[in-house]
Amino acid sequence: MKRIYLDHSATTHVDARVLDVMLPYFSEKFGNASSLHSFGLEAAEALSSSREQIAAALGAEPQEIIFTSGGTESDNMAIKGAAYMCSSRGRHIITSIIEHPAVLRTCEQLEREGFEVTYVPVDNEGILNMQLLEDSIREDTILISIMHANNEIGTIQPIKEISELIEGRRIVLHTDAVQSVGKIRVDVNELGVHMLSISSHKLHGPKGVGALYLRSGVNILPLVQGGGHERGLRPGTENIPGIVGFAKAMTIVREQLEEDSRHMQHLRDSMICNIRSRIPYARLNGHEEKRLPNNVNMSFRHVEGESLLMLLDMKGVAVSTGSACSSKSQKASHVLTAIDPGVDYIHGSLRFTLGRENTMEEIDIAVDHLEEAVMKLRQMSPFEEE
Amino acid sequence: MKRIYLDHSATTHVDARVLDVMLPYFSEKFGNASSLHSFGLEAAEALSSSREQIAAALGAEPQEIIFTSGGTESDNMAIKGAAYMCSSRGRHIITSIIEHPAVLRTCEQLEREGFEVTYVPVDNEGILNMQLLEDSIREDTILISIMHANNEIGTIQPIKEISELIEGRRIVLHTDAVQSVGKIRVDVNELGVHMLSISSHKLHGPKGVGALYLRSGVNILPLVQGGGHERGLRPGTENIPGIVGFAKAMTIVREQLEEDSRHMQHLRDSMICNIRSRIPYARLNGHEEKRLPNNVNMSFRHVEGESLLMLLDMKGVAVSTGSACSSKSQKASHVLTAIDPGVDYIHGSLRFTLGRENTMEEIDIAVDHLEEAVMKLRQMSPFEEE
Amino acid sequence: MYSRRLLEEFTNPQNVGVIEDADGVGQLGNPADGDVITIYIKVKDDVLVDVKFKTFGCAAAIATSSMVTQMAKGRTIEEARLITKEEVAEALGGLPSGKMDCSNFAPDTLRMAIEDYQKKQKT
Amino acid sequence: MYSRRLLEEFTNPQNVGVIEDADGVGQLGNPADGDVITIYIKVKDDVLVDVKFKTFGCAAAIATSSMVTQMAKGRTIEEARLITKEEVAEALGGLPSGKMDCSNFAPDTLRMAIEDYQKKQKT
Ligand SMILES: Cc1ncc(COP(=O)(O)O)c(C=O)c1O
Ligand SMILES: Cc1ncc(COP(=O)(O)O)c(C=O)c1O
Ligand code: FES
Ligand code: FES
Questions:
Q1: In chain C, how many domains are there?
Q2: Where are the coiled-coil regions (chains C, D) (predicted)?
């Protein structure tokens, strides 16, 4: 059975070109970048050119890139690092209710440590309420962390507007761009952010590596102590093959973003259109236009997401759902709950996240299987008329 | 020029067998272990069997293994995680003065946060002073962190004795086994430790992955918040290829440790013997017997380590020195300073750390080059008679 | 996660449907929680001659519904009410640990249908 | 890290040695700090006709010692004392940023040797 992968927001395969550049760094150019000998120099050079490539792809300077183990660590480092650094000036933080757990759980931890956090709501399409954000800014607000694009429903938040809003104030602006990089243009200066989190495995790079963009002049405290790596901000022997792969993945993004973005958006729009025309009572979650070009999140009335996911998986189609079914009752995700598609729809959401290598043929096959699966489950549903 | 790598304590090349098992996980079995579909299941299975392999190699249970990004993170997590967890019971921590910076800087950070830390000294051979350790235990001591083997001079510390000493007390015992795993037998129950740090890249596994062994029943607080990965103790999408490679590297260690250890020890002893017989005024740093089978750390009178390292590097021999020459004056490492080989020797140390693939021929060539280099530098040295 | 056997049951569930002139009906769960099972029974001489279900829920909910209806059919009312979650789970080749709770769900609904039938008998 | 030019100088240093009947000697650094440079000069008609060094220190210390002796030889005392660390660094194809301090070391020692010579002249 040919498998069709439509879960690129969960993770992506490593691009063949990325793996190619990584390979020499495992067993040949395997040095520790801190070593003074030739093996070390090879590693140090790879590290520094990787840093340049990633900076270039974000419109940043090389010294503004700090390597981490992934998006979760970048988010933790940005939020806690800035909070601890600025805690003498104030202890109020603003974020949104639809952030990734890496941000939400971190903010909750800071609440336990005595910080105050305002969680700004979103509208029914998942867009941040800018008025409420503005109203929640206080004298002692030190940090705003708002995701660039949501991982579940793909809505794109008005980061540039936020940065303009806080201009001239001593507030650090962080954005979690884990889902946006590789799908839409991300330039740290256009966005006007001070910190930005990225994760390599979401953009056809290897797992276990990520970065935090930290604008020159913005200071944060490190969360990890050790050797002096990454200017002392993130010690530990650098994962050179991972970093080299990450850099290549970013370079590919930089080179072909426009084309890839257009391709994915074309697939996305025709997928949404086909689903709507073939499956009754299907609702798009999130915003029609302000959404990632690769995100299709739809709810199907009277069917349950995990079942739908399993039926599609049996046909080789890999998707995700916002209804993680864990214990006695299905918990709808906090993001779906925030945009509230209604009781008939909230447990029936599926997330299809496209990749640059998906084809129209794959999308068509997926929609065929989807239609069949929805019909099948509706036949079993006690809420559907016979 | 054939290069000879004698810096295996800095990092190692990835074993060909390790890279082999990793490869499918980059671009084929690339799923996210949290995904419910078949791609996710492949990843979840790889994760769980890797965990079993690593546990088996340490005599631990699978659920006692927590994956991290490396040794530095494992050390931070163990020490801070236990300190924060137990802080209501006491705030006193004991460690040694020759720990790795990942432990020392972490302890210093905890001091800034109000913990008290006792740094126990070592004797001239680098062995922990057990009497002083015992004397420093107090009512409010919550944690002892002593490295299993030192990264510079290779001395092996009496961890088992420490665990016997504190038996029955409510003190958590952590050991940094980053340098010992793969060189000597490491079994968590024989050692009697509650926590143990490992780093994959020191044992022919990939960089960017490590683990913390956390004994069942011992609780620590997580340093990173996010999704529920690693029982909530270390969230973030798991680095599956890295973890699979790490597990394979540990399995190889388990299978061939005895043989490798004997081989390295044989090379080590003949290297020390040759150096002593051919180069006058060469001093072994560390303990003659209680040392890692792959560590040769020697000081050469009246020559400076970094120069020696550079001369050897020009001949293709990669080694390390405890005299990191950074700014105006050479700083001898804290480990050498602790064992104090004397002013004529302290700046002239070289660390040769052998790997299981080194050959006697390589060692012989290295000693030839070493002899030549020492002589050459001594000719330039103002302390040597013409 | 799910056993092969459970997935088979889930993809090819038996006894899906409604019994229009059912002798007893049970329903558990609610749409806001994301799971609802409805079980219909037809009884003749204390024996369950027909059992059907409609389920909105996860793969485990659907598979256990299907399995419980099959196990119940042909049994007496007394036998059927004794069907345990363990039996159902075992027949499905085991349930993932997080789903064990959910396996109680279908046998409970069956018991409700039986009670409904018995209540109707009395009146 | 180090430039190719510096490494060449370091591996093939010129003017290593002691001038037994030197006209001036300078020494800077101390063994506890891990670096000591000694420079010997021989002067004739205000010109440095011979310059030699002995250095205990890092590759940069040795390379700059060697370079400064070469640059000094044949120059007048006045010219030689004006040799700057920048000149030395440039002649070596640059120094790593952490080592710039250390490049002052050799020219300073040369200046000490010159002062020693001048002091001896006066007496
Ligand atoms: C928006 C967002 N932030 C953070 C993360 C965490 O990234 P990682 O899994 O690489 O730690 C993810 C992905 O899981 C994400 O989608
Ligand atoms: C004893 C010891 N502990 C900790 C570390 C840190 O490990 P890593 O570089 O993988 O973070 C090292 C190696 O650098 C080490 O030798
Ligand atoms: S229906 Fe509740 S967990 Fe499956
Ligand atoms: S001799 Fe001082 S840094 Fe080189």
A1: 1
A2: none
* pLDDT exceeds cutoff 70 at D32: yes
Domain limits for position D74: 4-116
Distance CA D15, CA A159 (A): 64
Is residue A143 within 8 Å of A86, Cβ to Cβ? yes
Is D22 within a domain? yes
Residues B157-199 have pLDDT tens digits of 999 999 999 999 999 999 999 999 999 999 999 999 999 999 9
Touch test A–B: 3 Cβ pairs or more under 8 Å: yes
Q: What is the DSSP letter of A230?
A: G
Does residue C122 lie in a domain region?
no
Contact between A380 and C55 using a beta-carbon 8 Å cutoff: yes
Percentage of residues of chain C with pLDDT beyond 70: 100
pLDDT of residue A337: 93
Rg (CA), chain B: 22
Give the global pTM: 0.96
CA distances from B279 to A244, A360, A367, B275, B373 (A): 42, 72, 76, 6, 11
Asked if residue A326 has pLDDT above 50, the reply is no
Please, are residues C48 and C17 in contact by the beta-carbon 8 Å criterion? Answer: no
DSSP C89-107: HHHTT---GGGTGGGGHHH
Q: Give domain status of residue D21, yes or no.
A: yes
Does ligand 3 lie within 6 Å of residue C29's CB atom? no
User: CATH number of the domain that D78 lies in?
Assistant: 3.90.1010.10
pLDDT in the model for residue D122:
84
**Interface confidence (ipTM) of the complex:** 0.95
Q: Which ligand has its closest atom nearest to the C-alpha of A228?
A: 2
Q: Is the CB of A219 under 6 A from ligand 2?
A: no
User: Does residue B87 surpass a pLDDT of 70?
Assistant: yes
B41 touching chain C per CB within 8 A: yes
Q: Catalytic site residue A325?
A: yes
Nearest-CA neighbor of B356 among B249, B220, B263, B241? B263
